[in-house]
Amino acid sequence: MSALRPVLVAAGVLAGFLVTVPASAATPVIQVISRTPAAEGNDSSSDPATSADGRYVVFASYATNFIPGNTNGSQGIYVKDTVTGVISHASAAANGTQADADSESPSISADGRYVAFTSVATNLVPGDTNGVRDVFVKDIRTGAIVKASTAESDFATISADGRHVSFRSGTSAYVKNLDTAETKLIVANAPATTYPLSADGRLAVFATSGALVAGDTNNVSDVYLKDSQTGTLSRISTTATGGQSAGGGTAPTISADGKFAAFESAAADLVPSDANGAADVFVKDLAKGTIRIGTVTAAGAQANGAATEPKLSANGRYLAFASAATNLVPGDTNGADDVFVKDLDKGTVLRTSVAAGGAQAEADSDNVDLSGNGRVTVFRSESANLASADGNNVADIFSAPALKPGADPYADAIAAGTTVGLSNGANALGAPDGKLAGVTGLLGGRLVLDMGEDEEGTGDLSVYYGGLNLGLLTSLDFLDAQGKSVGSGQLNLIDLGAGTHVTKVAHSGAPYRYVRINTGLLQVFSLDAVEAAG
Question: Residue 46 in 3-state DSSP?
Answer without folding.
Answer: strand
